[in-house]
Specification:
alpha/beta, 8 helices, Rossmann fold, 41% helix, globular, 215 residues, single chain, 6-stranded parallel β-sheet
């Protein structure tokens, strides 16, 4: 491979006009490549979207997608499998949109709080039954199954149940599934998968959860 020839320090600097000219050429080529890429993208259908990983933002990103649906006048729903009946800001806000958003907090807190597996399984079962109603409703364009991955990891709900329901839902319905440790089979089934990676977190420095950041 030929090494890049260093710039001659004696040569005069490029003029602003030349920099702008090269930028226009570069962006023109980029636009042509982008337009060619988009030409074949004509299909619209419901997507399975997974937000997983150890970093923050999995549920928050899903709530942002619900806000997009609201902006388009599309009905959405949120089913929370693990989080307890907390007074969270996102639930307050999304519940203000009336019939456009159904927000159901079905969990009883994290498993280390309940310390009762039978109770946790029962709560997850109730949440799943509620989720099935939404997954079968063609009027609901997006269903957020918040922290479902945790319920799957602990075996409160079987993956076969979930995959079967995803395959049977209305063809134009989007489903967003959040939570750490998404199973490989779900990732393979999904259309869009994002992994939030933890790099730094203030909790490690003794900073507690704060309004506007965590809830």
């Amino acid at each position: 491979m030929t090494d890049k020839v260093p710039e001659d320090p004696s040569s005069p600097p490029e003029s602003e006009e030349e920099v702008n000219r090269r930028h226009r050429i570069k962006m023109s080529r980029k636009k042509a490549a982008r337009d060619k890429l988009m030409t074949g993208k004509t299909t619209e259908r419901g997507l399975v979207i997974v937000h997983t990983g150890t970093g923050k933002g999995k549920s928050s990103s899903a709530f942002g997608m619900v806000l997009r649906c609201i902006g388009h006048g599309m009905k959405s729903s949120v089913i929370q499998f693990i989080k307890g009946d907390w007074d969270t800001a996102e639930r307050r806000v999304l519940s203000e949109f009336g019939d456009l958003v159904i927000f159901k907090t079905m969990g009883e807190g994290f498993t280390w709080e309940t310390q009762d597996r039978v109770r946790d399984i029962a709560a997850a079962g109730r949440a799943w039954n509620e989720a099935l109603r939404h997954l079968n409703d063609p009027e609901i364009r997006m269903v957020v199954l918040d922290e479902l991955n945790i319920a799957l990891r602990y075996g409160y709900i079987t993956l076969d149940q979930v995959l079967e329901a995803l395959d049977a839902r209305p063809t134009d319905q989007h489903v967003v599934i959040t939570g750490r440790h998404a199973p490989a089979e779900l990732i393979a089934r999904a259309d869009l998968v994002s992994e939030m990676t933890l790099i730094k977190h203030p909790f490690r420095d003794g900073v507690k959860a704060q309004p506007g950041v965590e809830f």
